[in-house]
Design goal:
Elements: E1 13-15, H1 23-35, E2 39-41, H2 49-58, E3 67-72, H3 79-93, E4 98-103, H4 109-112, H5 116-132, E5 136-142, H6 146-155, E6 162-166, H7 174-182, E7 186-190, H8 202-211, H9 215-225, E8 229-233, H10 237-244, H11 253-260
Helix pairs in contact: 1-2, 1-10, 2-3, 3-5, 5-6, 8-9
The structure holds NADP nicotinamide-adenine-dinucleotide phosphate.
């Protein structure tokens, strides 16, 4: 897929949330690259950046062929702390640049009252500086819905390239997707598989059977046909290979509509009420 600054972003992306630091993480990154993944998503708060970096060094593919994302955690919001957080992520990963750096969660009004927008704007100014300093190629947001995103957009010198939000059958994020489309901001789907719990959903399973595919492949295909980049995490080599193999088939309009109508649910926190 393409970002609004001209950079390519490989799809699908490989997730590492809850992947334990150490050998399991190193091996899962190596397996992911072996399976064909070129896009690895991590975050400071996942506590596994050192192992993700080690996996990148061991995978046998040049750094320039890979797309690596990390995120500034909530305790590090604001101008100076964000600059230092990025430095720490780069050092833990053992990299000299990130392809994409995201603000992990917006400061929200529930926690920060009328200071929330100013905190997000300050964090964004630091993100822009990281691009100017060429330590980060693209910058973006995560868990920003229109009410968090609009004040950032109003003061931005660099448009966010991506917004990574919880997105899967049952959570279509229509308003956020619409605002992102208007600004050419790529939507990335976290928990695209519903943390594995969507894989037994009856409609999805029956569509998968019809195509000779698995539910995980159908869900990610559904994301891609909606123009959304899916992220999926696994620490098992067989599942990693399965999750990467999402091209070479097409869902019909009626199958897309059927998956669109999976009942609403959300696994993660809502950005307006997240208290962490
Ligand atoms: N920006 C954010 O706030 C945010 C929040 C959450 C996640 N993310 C990113 O998005 C990525 C994906 O989200 P996620 O990790 O929450 O959930 P997910 O990818 O939807 O689901 C992961 C779960 O599904 C299982 N699984 C994966 N593939 C499978 C398959 N083919 N068959 C059966 N089970 C399978 C995994 O188990 P095994 O590992 O045991 O195979 C794991 O328990 C994360 O890893 C992270 O990089 C970002």
């Amino acid at each position: 897929m393409k970002l609004n600054n001209g950079y390519d972003i490989p799809s699908p992306g490989f997730g590492t949330f809850k992947t334990p630091d150490g050998e399991v993480c190193v091996e899962s990154v190596v397996e992911a690259v072996k399976a064909g993944y070129r896009h690895i998503d991590t975050a400071a708060v996942y506590g596994n950046e050192c192992s993700v970096g080690e996996g990148i060094r061991q995978c046998g593919i040049a750094r320039s062929e890979l797309f690596v994302t990390s995120k500034v955690w909530n305790t590090e919001r604001g101008y100076d702390k964000t600059l230092r957080a990025c430095e720490k992520s780069l050092s833990d990963l053992g990299l000299d640049y990130l392809d994409l750096y995201l603000i992990h969660w917006p400061a929200n009004e529930m926690q920060f009252g009328d200071k929330a927008a100013a905190i997000n704007a300050d964090t964004w100014r630091a993100m822009e500086r990281l691009v100017d300093e060429k330590v980060v190629r693209s910058i973006g947001l995560s868990n920003f819905y229109p009410n968090h995103m609009e004040p950032v957009l109003a003061g931005a010198n660099i448009l966010p390239a991506a917004d990574q939000v919880e997105y899967h059958p049952g959570l279509l994020q229509k308003e956020t997707v619409e605002l992102c489309r208007k600004h050419g901001i790529l939507v990335e789907a976290w928990s695209s598989l519903g943390r594995g719990k969507l894989l037994d959903e009856a409609h999805i399973a029956s569509i998968a059977e019809r195509h000779g595919k698995t539910s995980a492949q159908v869900i990610q295909r559904w994301c891609i046909q909606h123009g959304v980049l899916p992220l999926a995490k696994s620490v098992h080599a067989e599942r990693i290979r399965e999750n990467f193999d999402v091209n070479g088939f097409e869902l019909s309009e009626s199958e897309m509509a059927e998956i669109d109508s999976v009942p609403d649910f959300r696994y993660g926190s809502h950005p307006d009420t997240a208290a962490f």
